[in-house]
């Protein structure tokens, strides 16, 4: 699977994603299982864990990456299948970028798959704080950011990520569908759901019209438990709070320290404790 020696740029996330795990990889490294043949990531987001594992496992593995967000999976499929067409669209956005153009693209919906994918990257690279957010109608509603010269098209990174994704299966589906495939100790599942809010005023638990409530957290715990009972290696990230610690009290709970880099208020950014739960 891995052919990173042929790449001039190593694969890494091409999106700035709220709750992305790039900054936490060093703390996660000792928690990853050393051996597995099949990898599943049902809350794909920016894909930082997958891209790290791709680099780290020279022997390779099969991967199924999924998310309920249709536009996100369409984007990954375009990086996989149509990276040169995607790069061309992004270069066009780069040449046209200004405030008026930003709001024109933000208001526009495209049906053509590559144009839809390019729109997400363009908005992600130029919007305020790189915050992906949709309203209840599924409309992107973040204002333009204050960037003098944003890098909208990183062609070499997109090509590297396209190569990393070549043998990957990309699916639009709910997280519980992983039960249909992950069944043995050769399987590794990593869950990175929307985090349980630390307070009643927490707003950053959902970045799209797909809400993730307390019942979903409990349903996720049940899926985690079922996978663990099968012998599947399971790892999960979430907020460090009594509710989550109680849900996973029968498993290994590890504490990590994360920096909140995406928040609408600067005073709310900084170090915060999170937990990583493992079944092994």
TrEMBL record:
Coiled coil: none annotated. InterPro entries: Ade_MeTrfase_dom_2, DNA_methylase_N6_adenine_CS, M_m6A_EcoRV, MeTrfase_D12, SAM-dependent_MTases_sf. GO terms for molecular function: methyltransferase activity. Belongs to the N(4)/N(6)-methyltransferase family. GO terms for biological process: methylation. Its EC number is 2.1.1.72. It catalyses: a 2'-deoxyadenosine in DNA + S-adenosyl-L-methionine = an N(6)-methyl-2'-deoxyadenosine in DNA + S-adenosyl-L-homocysteine + H(+). Keywords: Methyltransferase, S-adenosyl-L-methionine, Transferase. This is Site-specific DNA-methyltransferase (adenine-specific). It comes from Phormidium pseudopriestleyi FRX01. Pfam families: MethyltransfD12.
């Amino acid at each position: 699977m891995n052919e990173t020696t042929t790449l001039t740029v190593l694969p890494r996330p091409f999106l700035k994603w709220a709750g992305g795990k790039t900054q936490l990889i060093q703390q996660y490294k000792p928690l990853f299982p050393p051996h597995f043949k099949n990898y599943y990531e049902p809350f794909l987001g920016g894909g930082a864990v997958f891209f790290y594992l791709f680099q780290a496992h020279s022997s390779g593995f099969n991967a199924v990456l999924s998310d309920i967000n249709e536009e996100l999976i369409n984007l990954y499929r375009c990086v996989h299948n149509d990276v040169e067409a995607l790069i061309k669209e992004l270069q066009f956005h780069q040449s046209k970028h200004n405030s008026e153009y930003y709001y024109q693209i933000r208001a526009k919906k495209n049906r053509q798959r590559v144009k839809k994918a390019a729109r997400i990257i363009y908005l992600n690279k130029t919007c305020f704080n790189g915050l992906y957010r949709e309203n209840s109608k599924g409309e992107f509603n973040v204002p333009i950011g204050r960037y003098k010269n944003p890098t909208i098209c990183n062609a070499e990174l997109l090509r590297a990520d396209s190569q990393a994704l070549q043998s990957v299966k990309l699916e639009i589906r709910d997280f519980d569908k992983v039960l249909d495939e992950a069944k043995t100790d050769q399987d590794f599942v990593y869950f990175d759901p929307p985090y349980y809010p630390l307070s009643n005023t927490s707003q950053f638990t959902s970045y799209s019209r797909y809400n993730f409530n307390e019942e979903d957290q409990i349903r996720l715990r049940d899926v985690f438990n079922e996978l663990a009972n099968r012998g599947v290696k399971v790892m999960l990230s979430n907020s460090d709070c009594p509710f989550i610690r109680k849900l996973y009290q029968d498993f290994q709970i590890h504490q990590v320290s994360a920096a909140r880099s995406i928040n609408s208020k600067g005073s709310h950014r900084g170090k915060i404790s999170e937990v990583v739960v493992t079944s092994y």
